[in-house]
Amino acid sequence: MELEQADTLENVERVQNAVATEQGYLDYIVQDWACWDDTYQFIEDKNQEYINVDLQNQTLSGINVNVMIFVNSTGEVVYVKSVDTQTAEEIPVPEGLLAMIEDGSLLTKEEDDPISGFVLLDEDPMFIACHPILTTKYEGPSRGTLIFGRYFDDDLLDSFKKVTRSSLLMYRADEKMPTDFQTKIKNFSENSDKIMVEPINEEQIAGYFGLKDIKGHLALLIRADFPRELYLHGEKTLNYMYFFLLLTGLMTGIGVKFVLDKLFISRLVEIDDFVTKVRSEKDLSKRLSLEDDDELYRLSKEINGMLNEIYLAEQELKAQAREKKVLLDSLNELTVFMDPELRIIWANKAALEHMKMDLEEAIGVCIKAVPGISGSLVEYLHVEQIFTTGEKKSGEFVAKDGKVWFAQAIPVPDEQGKIIGILQTCRDITERKEAERLLHEKQIAEVANRTKSEFLANMSHELRTPLNSIIGFSDLLHEKVYGELNEKQTKAVGNISRSGKHLLSLINDILDLSKVEAGKLELNYKEFELISKLKTIKNLLSPIADRKNIEVKIAVDKDLTTICADDARFVQILYNLLDNAIKFSHENGLVKIEAKKKGDLVEIKVTDNGIGIKAEDQYKLFKPFSQVDSFSSKKFQGTGLGLSLVKQIVNLHGGYVWFSSKIGEGSTFAFTIPIKGNDRNDGNNEVKPLNDTETAENLESEGKNKNINQF
């Protein structure tokens, strides 16, 4: 009985070790991910590149993790993903897990305070591993908690059955369970680390043990069943032996020897020879064949069954090894595992290709002697010191060819904690570093541009004060307030006033543009009547249109009455567009202003049949101080700031601008802004040319088919 108890305890401990190995694997992998500079940065900026590269469904499936949750230091969930490890398809995140994050149960408090154990969810029990998010050097401050979860479902329980070659039953502590479990739950609640062994019946014996949740309470109760056949057979055989000894007392010594040799000894020798041969040849395909229906025959069947199970377990381990190799070979990182003498034990496909070697050539070679980056990284990371300190090392390394590599050297200990090797990984981050450099240069340029804009805005204020004085006094002189002037003096003073006003207009445009670029231009929204405002702008420019005998028409949707915008800036937009249309139209031409309602937006178009814009010159539009060609800049007065201001002001309103033009046929400039106003003011909209089909003629015919009023 004591032998049976001891054997059962040993078998149950084997099951416990299998469960502990799964939990240990989850603890190890969450630590590896949490103490990674890329994860540390991702919590800060939530960059999409990290998600695209490292957080794919196949990645979670490959490392056998169902749930991955990133939580920042304030307890806010930054990113979450839940997948089926068998299909790599996304599945819902357990609500119970999110609730435990909200109440703080799964959040680490200190930098050296990981959380490990089980949680009972509505779906299934789950292995949980939580680790503070630190840098690759295990340095803080912690930016939050990384949580990994693996369902303890039927598939995982079946895998434990295969590995331990036992029959397992599992029940949750919070649910109703069979009677034999209920009688033991009180003992396990008081001491969940103990193992209880008791026979179930004459054929089976069971070992019970409990598993704690993350708070140290009993979560699961597991029963491992084992056959008592060996011990029953032993008892039966012992009875046979007693009976046999009784008979042998009546037989001669020669007869006893003959019978023993025939029935037991020769066959036991055969069994011993078979086991020795299998062990020496390591050939698990062989099977023992004994005749007769007795105990030794049944023992041979048990040996054959054990060989079958060992063979299947060996095949499963080989399959898992192949899967891990495929996974590691699929990585772009160079991965090399080396022993304490720095000899290569294993390398993945990327590393072998980089070293220009195959695995058979690489095994046993000192890593310092291999071609490529690996040998240099050993010197750079001082890998030999890791065997003494036991600390992981990492850093960025610039190779002779200019490439930048991020390298890690991770110690790999055995069960006793002794370091038996180093796992070295390195990843080419040249493109990422170049992108960071370009981003830094862009930020510097943006700062310089804002500084320029602020300078222009300040200088424009300084220039306007004396210029207003010049214009004022020249107008007084021109009006002969201070006395009579001769004809030449009057003409000269008039030129001074006109030039000053033109210069003031230019400075005002520069000031507005600088305010926009410096982020200081604010909009004053108010509601106004659209038709009335369009007529006002038309009247302002009618003297210029009349000089060229140009007709200006206004067409507005009947259901479009009022809009909410900065009316002064709205006038500035329409004034610039209408002024350009009149300026570049032929004598006796036609300019149309159309306003239509499109959803929550008002769309306004200004169309002329003037000179048009060459396709190769259209890219110059909406750029400050830029005109389409030198001829236009001489023939038509302008600074090139008008359209740039139009774009910026429309963007501030939350709208966008577009245009269409054909040389010799005219141009259409259009913009949209929200009818009820906009408070985003992000200024990120772009100027868009119309499609080839959206010419001025198409826009005109479209207007005729709409229900609009003609003015």
TrEMBL record:
<feature type="compositionally biased region" description="Basic and acidic residues">
    <location>
        <begin position="680"/>
        <end position="691"/>
    </location>
</feature>
<dbReference type="InterPro" id="IPR005467">
    <property type="entry name" value="His_kinase_dom"/>
</dbReference>
<keyword id="KW-1133">Transmembrane helix</keyword>
<dbReference type="InterPro" id="IPR036890">
    <property type="entry name" value="HATPase_C_sf"/>
</dbReference>
<feature type="domain" description="HAMP">
    <location>
        <begin position="262"/>
        <end position="315"/>
    </location>
</feature>
<keyword id="KW-0597">Phosphoprotein</keyword>
<dbReference type="Pfam" id="PF02518">
    <property type="entry name" value="HATPase_c"/>
</dbReference>
<dbReference type="InterPro" id="IPR036097">
    <property type="entry name" value="HisK_dim/P_sf"/>
</dbReference>
<dbReference type="InterPro" id="IPR000700">
    <property type="entry name" value="PAS-assoc_C"/>
</dbReference>
<dbReference type="Pfam" id="PF08448">
    <property type="entry name" value="PAS_4"/>
</dbReference>
<feature type="domain" description="PAC">
    <location>
        <begin position="391"/>
        <end position="441"/>
    </location>
</feature>
<dbReference type="InterPro" id="IPR004358">
    <property type="entry name" value="Sig_transdc_His_kin-like_C"/>
</dbReference>
<dbReference type="InterPro" id="IPR007892">
    <property type="entry name" value="CHASE4"/>
</dbReference>
<dbReference type="InterPro" id="IPR000014">
    <property type="entry name" value="PAS"/>
</dbReference>
<dbReference type="GO" id="GO:0000155">
    <property type="term" value="F:phosphorelay sensor kinase activity"/>
</dbReference>
<keyword id="KW-0472">Membrane</keyword>
<dbReference type="Pfam" id="PF05228">
    <property type="entry name" value="CHASE4"/>
</dbReference>
<dbReference type="GO" id="GO:0005524">
    <property type="term" value="F:ATP binding"/>
</dbReference>
<keyword id="KW-0902">Two-component regulatory system</keyword>
<dbReference type="InterPro" id="IPR003594">
    <property type="entry name" value="HATPase_dom"/>
</dbReference>
<dbReference type="GO" id="GO:0009927">
    <property type="term" value="F:histidine phosphotransfer kinase activity"/>
</dbReference>
<keyword id="KW-0418">Kinase</keyword>
<keyword id="KW-1003">Cell membrane</keyword>
<keyword id="KW-0812">Transmembrane</keyword>
<dbReference type="InterPro" id="IPR003660">
    <property type="entry name" value="HAMP_dom"/>
</dbReference>
<feature type="region of interest" description="Disordered">
    <location>
        <begin position="680"/>
        <end position="711"/>
    </location>
</feature>
<dbReference type="InterPro" id="IPR003661">
    <property type="entry name" value="HisK_dim/P_dom"/>
</dbReference>
<dbReference type="InterPro" id="IPR035965">
    <property type="entry name" value="PAS-like_dom_sf"/>
</dbReference>
<keyword id="KW-0067">ATP-binding</keyword>
<dbReference type="Pfam" id="PF00512">
    <property type="entry name" value="HisKA"/>
</dbReference>
<dbReference type="InterPro" id="IPR013656">
    <property type="entry name" value="PAS_4"/>
</dbReference>
<feature type="transmembrane region" description="Helical">
    <location>
        <begin position="240"/>
        <end position="260"/>
    </location>
</feature>
<keyword id="KW-0547">Nucleotide-binding</keyword>
<keyword id="KW-0808">Transferase</keyword>
<feature type="domain" description="Histidine kinase">
    <location>
        <begin position="458"/>
        <end position="677"/>
    </location>
</feature>
<protein>
    <recommendedName>
        <fullName>histidine kinase</fullName>
        <ecNumber>2.7.13.3</ecNumber>
    </recommendedName>
</protein>
<dbReference type="GO" id="GO:0005886">
    <property type="term" value="C:plasma membrane"/>
</dbReference>
